[in-house]
Amino acid sequence: MKKHNFSAGPCILPQEVMMKASEAVLDFNGSGLSLIEISHRSKDFVAVMENARSLALDHLGLKGKGYQALFLHGGASMQFLMVAYNLLEKKAGYLNTGTWSNNAIKEAKLFGDVVEVASSKDKGYNYIPKDFSVPNDLDYLHITSNNTIYGTQMKSFPKGNVPLICDMSSDIFSRQLDFSQFDLIYAGAQKNMGPAGTTLVVVKEDILGKVTRKIPSILNYQLQIEKESMFNTPAVFPIYVSMLTLEWLQNIGGIPAIEKINNKKAQLLYSEIDLNPMFKGYAKKEDRSIMNATFNLTENKLKEEFEGMCKEGGINGLNGHRSVGGYRASMYNALSLESVGVLVDIMSELERKG
Ligand SMILES: *Cc1c(COP(=O)(O)O)cnc(C)c1O
């Protein structure tokens, strides 16, 4: 039976992308060779890299605006330090909205002073802090647009006179935004774009080259740009699959089209959480994420029954992160409205039975 995959990451990818990716592993472009056994400098793979980089900028509306797209190693976690390595001279600001922000802060402290401009730690990170000011003397301000673990999402973004850096790992390509308000965006592929193993970095070139420290080659954005994202052997398979996903997104109408579906999915699930007395949401309503919905049972004694029903219905990956508990339904781009419908039906059946 096909599962309804609500996993937080690595996560569901479009079925047609899976089909094309598996074909390319056996025979890439009818070449008689596998995608994963040819040179990354071959004409065919260079075309993949160029296409993936170009599609990323296209979707974000950043073509011709001074940005470069890179596919790098090391996950979003590598960007926690790479951002600071390349951009932090004296002092950086961080908005603390959860585990991932904290990890980013920890790495940045190795390179300079870090000020937490605001934090939602006081309430278990169930909301997004809004009333804070951005000091003018920061090298940059770092934010996390979607907090995968807590199910909160930023709906508006701080305005300031310093470069804005955004960890967009779990909601990139999911909603329309003015992406030019960010100077650097990064995202581990495995949440909404492809398999684990590559990270998309979109950077405005004019913020680079300003720190005085020496930067190791592989961690240097400027060098990665110069080498067209092929300083060393790139993660050929994850990049290829990311390219296929970006093509899939383009074919269904791009971010505007997927945003409509994502909103429908989120509305369907959140209205069930709100109307069904068996469930309660975790995140503050106004800050709820359209990607990751966090919720719990109002009575723990229904746990076994609910989880049994989910299992029977083919629901996968619903367990909340260990730091929050309860449940988390991740509704990334490739998850269908139908899958959310199946979950919602189970939730309302639990109410009828209860
Ligand atoms: C998953 C996640 C990360 C960590 O990604 P890795 O690629 O595993 O390093 C960082 N930030 C956010 C918002 C995430 O959801």
From TrEMBL:
Residues bound to pyridoxal 5'-phosphate: 76-77, 100, 148, 167, 190, 232-233
Cofactor note: Binds 1 pyridoxal phosphate per subunit.
Residues the record lists as N6-(pyridoxal phosphate)lysine modifications: 191
BP-aspect Gene Ontology terms: L-serine biosynthetic process; pyridoxine biosynthetic process
Catalysed conversion reaction: 4-(phosphooxy)-L-threonine + 2-oxoglutarate = (R)-3-hydroxy-2-oxo-4-phosphooxybutanoate + L-glutamate; O-phospho-L-serine + 2-oxoglutarate = 3-phosphooxypyruvate + L-glutamate
Enzyme class: transferase
Subcellular location: Cytoplasm
Pathway: Amino-acid biosynthesis; L-serine biosynthesis; L-serine from 3-phospho-D-glycerate: step 2/3; Cofactor biosynthesis; pyridoxine 5'-phosphate biosynthesis; pyridoxine 5'-phosphate from D-erythrose 4-phosphate: step 3/5
Alphabetic keyword roster: Amino-acid biosynthesis, Aminotransferase, Cytoplasm, Pyridoxal phosphate, Pyridoxine biosynthesis, Serine biosynthesis, Transferase
UniProt binding sites for L-glutamate: 41
Principal location listed in the UniProt entry: cytoplasm
EC numbers on record: 2.6.1.52
Keyword Cell inner membrane: no
Annotated Aminotransferase class V domain residues: 5-340
Its job: Catalyzes the reversible conversion of 3-phosphohydroxypyruvate to phosphoserine and of 3-hydroxy-2-oxo-4-phosphonooxybutanoate to phosphohydroxythreonine.
Similarity-based family: Belongs to the class-V pyridoxal-phosphate-dependent aminotransferase family. SerC subfamily.
Subunit structure: Homodimer.
Protein name: Phosphoserine aminotransferase
Species, as recorded: Arenibacter nanhaiticus
Protein encoded by which gene: serC
